Amino acid sequence: MAHPSIDSKSGFPVGVAPTLQVEDLKTCFFTKGGVATAVDSVSFTLNPGEIMGLVGESGSGKSMTGYSIVGLVDPPGEVVGGRILFQGQDLRQMDEESLRRLRGNRISMIFQDPMMTLNPVLRIDTQMIETVLAHDKVSHSAARERARDALARVGIPAPEERLRAYPHQFSGGMRQRVAIAIAMLNKPDLIIADEPTTALDVTIQAQILFEMQKLCRETGTALIWITHDLSVVAGLVDTVAVMYAGKLVETGPVRSVLENPLHPYTRSLIESLPSRNVRGRPLKQISGIAPSLLALPVGCAFRERCPAAGPACMEEPLKRELHKSTVRCWFPFTAQEVV
Amino acid sequence: MKTVEATHALLELRDVSKQFYKRPDIAQRMAIKLGFAAPPATVHAVDRASIKVFPGEVVGLVGESGCGKSTLGRVAVGLHAPTMGQRLWRGQDMAGMTANARRQAQLKLQMVFQDPYASLNPRLRVNQIVGEAAVAHGLVEAREQKSFVAHLLERVGLDPNVSQRFPHQFSGGQRARIGIARALALKSEFLVCDEAVAALDVSIQAQVINLFMQLRQELGLTYLFISHDLGVVRHISDRVVIMYLGRVVETADAQALFEHPNHPYTQALLAEAPTLVVKKKTFVAIRGEIPSPLNPPSGCHFHPRCPHAMARCSVEAPALRNIAAGHESACHLNDR
Questions:
Q1: Domains and CATH numbers, chain B
Q2: Distance CA B294, CA A36 (A)
Q3: Residue finishing a domain among A166, A185, A204
Q4: Which of A192, A224, B11, B261 is least surrounded, with the fewest CB atoms within 10 Å of its CB?
Q5: What is the pLDDT of residues B98-155, one digit of tens each?
Q6: How far away is chain A from the Cα of B277, in angstroms, using its nearest Cα?
Q7: Is B327 exposed, middle or buried (0-12, 13-18, 19+ CB in 10 A)?
Q8: Helices (H), strands (E): how many in chain B?
């Protein structure tokens, strides 16, 4: 097979159909206090095997973006606009039955707390075999074999014995591995991982990042890694999307976003990390707090905390293509300023 | 920090151990006596740990969950009584002090807690949360409480007019500031900060770390800063203590520790801490899980996961010894 040509912008092969295309996704929460737009005009594309880091602070809408894609938004929230094309099919147009067939099979999700995935009163094998049989017509023993292989793949020692254990018999790191194994069971095309390593220790986190990266490389699974931690993203992902107050403010290849951030928010976020500051000196900080989604400032939502804000920011910034990134800002940092 | 070496440590924990065990009820006690049940398991949360904190110093206490760093912090501040070992305040054993002297020393030791939500009473106004203890201990008159609280709130960067509000009316970062104001209210000299910034967003975390450093300069505070975040610890600490499963495995000046980590566990911890450097790194993990403190491995606690483990490591626990000026490490590799 001839190698497909490589797209100069994304670094990914052209001609391969993207796994996921999100266009102008909008999710609102209709609360007593008013309408909060948790996800606002979010668009991105994810190719097979690509790992995207979705980064933002609490309340920025990063988890809601993930939930919106798999259709897990509960009232008073609702996906009100946009298209979610999974392998060309719009998930928003699908009926509940077709969605059920996709979820856990072609699309799976890993939650921050593995006990959200695992049923505490069922053994691991029951839960894993159920996941296989729900989507595949195979024998019980074949399903069990697949479960055992999946456990072995995420680095659980003695998988045959561990299959007969209950979730409480595992440590936190092990439980998260089981949750990841369940997500991988049916070799999905897309995994959405919502802060899966936040509650784990560094040494355990490193093991899980390693395994996820390997699995995506080997199986061509696309992965959305939702996190608040920019440094986790650095070694893992191909592209980064930074969210602020429901909007994607900057999207681009990981190298250019982290080394040459264009949006003032991304830049301030990176500069405020202790590792980017001289030891003992005051950290560069972002003043103020994130605005409430119910009372966003007029124009750019970051305006009031932004060091580069000007009169133009009273109007909402449009998306712009700059270098290899897409940025939503009137005054992005350009390469010249950086040099 | 040369000059302070000569003086007494502000707080010293000497060979402190803390064990937790469940007290068996009468039926269990009888069963144990008759040999039908095993005696209750003991958790060795802290195992003969010694730390010294000198006046004006910031000591970072680092370790993974379950390593006993929080327990050690609670022993330091007096929330747990140590099972064994001594707690010395300015060179004096606190157990041997008169009740009054001990209370006076105790007031100088305060704690900032991890969770800015759970550590503030939701039914009290900020005025009470911050000012109650100072009035109760006679540091300020009741009628001065309002201005006293206003002054403290200003000190931690809050609007003094918010003192009649309840905790739920504040954001996470503001609550962290209230927690700090409460710890400062007793004219404390020594703060134990237990993961005090871990629950905050990155942009707010920087603000709170800056506040800690500013207060240290203005008030000459001493901190024991407990954290699992190596970036934060590196930034604010003068000295760092690394713990693993209840034991101190390495302690050194922050710079020395981050540049020349000696203990294999410290090395692994530093290697695996995520950084912003973009490279396709293949995460090389240290093998295995953190063992349970209910049943810690024999010898060196780290030996089942250590890449350099020798036969001796599983038998003999290495002692913490000097390997360079102010740099101590507990590893048999240093004997060669």
A1: 2-108+189-262 (3.40.50.300)
A2: 48
A3: A185
A4: B261
A5: 999 988 888 999 999 888 888 899 999 999 999 999 999 988 898 999 999 999 998 8
A6: 6
A7: middle
A8: 11, 12
Alpha-carbon gap: B229 to the closest alpha carbon of chain A (Å): 9
A178: in domain:
yes
For residues A300-322, average pLDDT? 86
AA identity, residue B23 = R
Residues A328 and A204: their CA atoms lie apart, in Å, by 36
A276 vs B contacts (CB less than 8 Å): 276
Which residues, including other chains, have CB under 8 Å from residue B29's CB and lie 6 or more apart? none
Q: Kindly give the interhelix angle for A124-133 and A140-153, rounded to the nearest 10 degrees.
A: 110
Put simply, the answer to whether A285 touches B210 (Cβ < 8 Å) is yes
pLDDT in tens, B199-253: 788 888 888 899 999 999 999 999 999 988 888 899 899 999 999 988 999 999 9
A77 domain residue, yes or no: no
The conformational region for residue B162 under phi > 0 = left, psi -120 to 50 = alpha, else beta, is alpha
Q: How many domains does chain A have?
A: 2
Residue A275 lies in a domain: yes
Residue A30 lies in a domain: no
Taking the CA of residue B78 and the nearest CA in chain A, the distance in Å comes to 27
Contacts across the A-B interface (CB distance below 8 Å):
133
With bands split at pLDDT 50, 70 and 90, how would you rate the model's confidence at A143?
very high
Residue numbers of B between 86 and 145 with CB closer than 8 Å to A: none
pTM: 0.82
Domain boundary residue, one of A132, A152, A185: A185
Whether A1 shows a pLDDT value over 50: the answer reads no
